[in-house]
Design a protein that fits this description.
CATH topology of the largest domain in chain B: Beta-Lactamase
Structural class of chain A: alpha+beta
Strand order of the largest sheet of chain A: 17-18-16-15-21-22-23
Helix content of chain B: 40-55%
Oligomer: heterodimer
Largest sheet of chain A: 7 strands, mixed
CATH architecture of the largest domain in chain B: 2-Layer Sandwich
Strand content of chain B: 15-25%
Strand order of the largest sheet of chain B: 5-4-3-8-7-6
CATH topology of one domain in chain A: Nucleotidyltransferase, domain 5
Order of helices and strands of chain B: HHHHEEHHEEEHHEEEHH
Largest interface: A-B, 24 and 28 residues
């Protein structure tokens, strides 16, 4: 039987990648193209949607050319940077302004103002998330308020809104010429405009944020046919779409309640499947939609986002010049046996989950003349482990689910010292899968599942193989519980330091 | 400015010493200019400083870029000394080696169905720096940091064969470009390994698969050809990742 392949597009923050996977879930080809980052003012981050669309078309066409028989590529799945907001003209297909990227903080004042309204409690109650500039709804509102004539044109139905998957699907399916205007439920759940239970746009939330319903895409399941991509060198059904972190959860085959993954990149993103139950959070994690199969109830997840993980190692390299490459942090850390009493809290621009303290600022605590650069390197790595523990504890308090093992991916998973530290700090096994490209694999799985490349979720589960495992040491786990109190104190100090 | 003086003194206007390789002299002059400029110069300024045509300076800079001796700021196009130059004379960091080889090692394990190890020589010891489990989800223990006997393992044979003063019996390993282990280390088990080279061509590591003898070798004891190709291809891919161009 000829093998059948699935094309995945991973539209990320710095680049757009097109990858082809076989039925074994193995990557057979990849093409990548970076796009420009625009920083027009401090705190503003923008992307050019036209450039991203061109890069998508180009890398997808290239990667289809790399596969010996492109006719065996049977579906396309999309994973995308979340919460990045695009508004465009439905007739010309031109964006009215550049995309407002998820890292952009220009909506801070708007969000403060909205959160002070007496009816602001509605947002958390309906959308499942506390009102914050992190999500796409406030960005859309900013565009309507600031781009000339945007609101009036949106109300006349001339403008369309979408996150990146919506923008790409609309263009892939014809753009101004019959393009399909849809979003997947995981991306929609990050707008603050969707009722997280019914998975529909909520009229009260639209009124609260003053968003015209005419410009919103139709909300669809993550796994199921979304449209026919006719704008590539080969026509393919678009059969799956997920926000990137949800795609990684899917690619890591975390399909059962309690199963969780953590992606260690610039920041770290931990998602734990909570099944069909939407968990009301009190401890600082976020409730979000994990995925939805066509015709089934949505599955939910708890999410804990940490802003600075690998970025702290980059700071050690570029800011302090203590190491020549990111990987060398492990070499430096191994020159000493412990952190020497040193703790680094990387609250470069506040702390996200589970603290949500924007005012916190970074600090190095416990300095004595004994502390060397080796101790500092260790404290830098441990900071990522401690922050994982912060998030996992908050999730356990919210969901009551135990964590059988933590599945990890991302660049920092080649760091054995860090991975062992995470296992010890959580007192939980840490496992790394054979395929590190979990985001794009998740998009491929979603699309392949919809068109029958894989029969069911169990078939995907069988594709998951362990490439490494770090087992906690009971003695270390116990010792670290005591050290964790020092970390908690350091976090309190970082919040106090930044307080106005 | 300081760099102009350096550029003029060490540039080519002073003439070429007979019997030397011109392109190396030019590259050296460019490196001096780049080093003295603090990363502020683009190709036009560099070409002017060493008295070369812009196209010549550009192709020299591209070559220096490809071996990691200079790096270019993607935003401004300006050049600075590269990490490869700064690390000349110091051995490749083993953690860096793991990070750079990880994707290829994973792919080798996934395709071959066998456990994968990457090892380096530390003094006379063979140290495992990366280990990918056999993809069957059975209980396995991460062996990173453990040492292996050099003479009886495929990884060790590769590393010894390319070390200074290799043992005579390993001459074959250098000729064929790979080494095999047939039960010498562990009964019934074998391995196939190939060399990993750094940018300059030096063998810095060995990459290999291990498993039951019957699944690695045919009835006459020869490595299964598909598997051997996977191992040597993966080793070449890691070498390319490290900047080795002829792999």
């Amino acid at each position: 039987m000829p093998d059948r392949y699935v094309l995945a597009v991973d539209q990320g923050t710095t680049s757009t990648r097109s990858l082809v996977f076989d039925r074994g879930g193995r990557m057979v080809a990849v093409r990548q193209r970076e796009h420009h980052q625009y920083f027009p003012r401090p705190g503003w981050v923008e992307h050019d949607p036209m450039e991203i669309w061109a890069n998508t078309q180009r890398t997808a066409a290239q990667v289809l050319g790399d596969v010996p028989d492109a006719g065996d590529v049977v579906a396309l799945g999309i994973a995308n940077q979340r919460e990045t907001t695009v508004v465009w003209d439905r007739v010309t297909g031109r964006p009215v302004t550049r995309a407002l990227v998820w890292q952009d903080t220009r909506t801070a004042d708007l969000v403060t103002e909205l959160a002070a309204r007496p009816d602001a409690g509605l947002v958390a109650e309906r959308s499942g998330m506390a009102i914050a500039g992190y999500f796409s709804g406030p960005r859309l509102r900013w565009i309507l308020d600031h781009v000339p004539r945007a609101r009036e044109r949106a109300e006349r139905g001339e403008l369309l809104f979408g996150t990146m998957e919506t923008w790409l699907i609309w263009n892939l399916t014809g753009g101004p010429d019959g393009g399909v205007h849809v979003t997947d439920v995981t991306n929609a759940s990050r707008t603050l405009l969707m009722d997280v239970r019914s998975c529909r746009w909520d009229p009260d939330l639209l009124a609260f944020f003053d968003i015209p319903a005419e410009m919103l895409p139709e909300i669809r399941p993550s796994v199921g046919i979304l449209g026919q991509a006719t704008a590539l060198n080969r026509s393919l059904p678009i059969a799956g779409a997920l926000g990137d972190q949800q795609a990684a959860l899917f690619g890591q085959a975390c399909f059962a309640p309690g199963e969780a993954k953590c992606t260690y990149g610039t920041g770290s993103f931990l998602l734990q499947n909570t099944g069909t139950e939407l968990v009301r959070t009190r401890s600082g994690s976020i409730s979000t939609v994990a995925y939805q199969l066509a015709g089934e109830a949505p599955r939910y997840a708890l999410e804990g986002s940490v802003a600075v993980a690998g970025a702290l190692v980059q700071w050690l390299r570029d800011g302090l010049g203590l190491i020549g490459s990111a990987a060398e942090v492990e070499t430096l850390a191994r020159t000493v046996a412990d952190n020497g009493g040193c703790y680094v809290v990387p609250a470069f621009s506040g702390l996200l989950a589970p603290h949500w303290r924007g005012e916190a600022r970074g600090l190095v605590a416990g300095l004595t003349s004994y502390v060397t650069k080796g101790h500092l390197a260790r404290a830098v790595l441990e900071a990522t482990g401690w922050q994982t523990r912060d998030v996992v504890q908050a999730m356990a308090a919210d969901s009551g689910l135990s964590l059988p093992a933590l599945r990890v991916d991302g660049g920092m998973t080649t760091n054995n010292l860090l991975m062992q530290f995470v296992a010890d700090a959580l007192d939980t096994p840490v496992v790394r899968p054979m395929v590190g490209e979990t985001v794009s694999l998740g998009a491929a799985y979603a699309a392949g599942l919809a068109v029958g490349v894989w029969s069911d979720i169990e078939a995907l589960r069988r594709n998951w193989h362990r490439s490494a495992q770090w087992t906690p040491s009971p003695e270390r786990a116990q010792a670290l519980t005591a050290e964790y109190r020092c970390w908690e104190r350091a976090v309190e100090l970082s919040i106090a330091w930044g307080a106005p | 400015m300081c760099w102009v003086t350096i550029g003029a003194r060490d540039g080519l206007a002073s003439g070429v010493v007979p019997g030397t390789v011109q392109s190396i002299e030019r590259a050296a002059a460019i490196l001096r200019v780049v080093a003295g400029s603090g990363g502020r110069l683009g190709v036009t300024d560099i070409a002017a400083a060493v008295g070369l045509a812009k196209t010549t300076a550009h192709s020299l800079l591209r070559t220096l870029l490809s071996v990691g001796f200079v790096e270019q700021d993607p935003a401004t196009g300006r050049y600075a000394l590269g990490p490869g130059l700064l690390r000349l004379g110091t051995p490749l960091d083993v953690n860096e080696l793991r990070a750079r080889s990880s994707n290829w090692a994973d792919a080798l394990a996934a395709r071959s169905g066998h456990a994968v190890r990457l090892a380096t020589l530390a003094g006379t010891e063979v140290v495992v720096v990366h280990h990918v489990f056999r993809p069957d989800d059975s209980a396995q223990v991460l062996e990173v940091g453990t040492t292996l006997p050099a003479r009886s393992t495929a990884l060790g044979k590769v590393l010894l064969a390319y070390a200074p003063a290799p043992p005579a019996e390993l001459a074959e390993v250098r000729t064929q470009g790979w080494a095999a282990e047939r039960g010498e280390h562990e009964q019934g088990m074998g391995a196939i390994a190939a060399p990993v080279r750094s940018a300059g061509g030096l063998v810095v590591a060995a990459l290999g698969v291990s498993g039951p003898l019957t699944s690695l070798f045919d009835g006459r004891g020869a490595p299964r050809s598909l598997l051997l190709a996977m191992v040597t291809d993966a080793a070449h891919a890691v070498s390319r990742e490290l900047g080795h161009s002829s792999a």
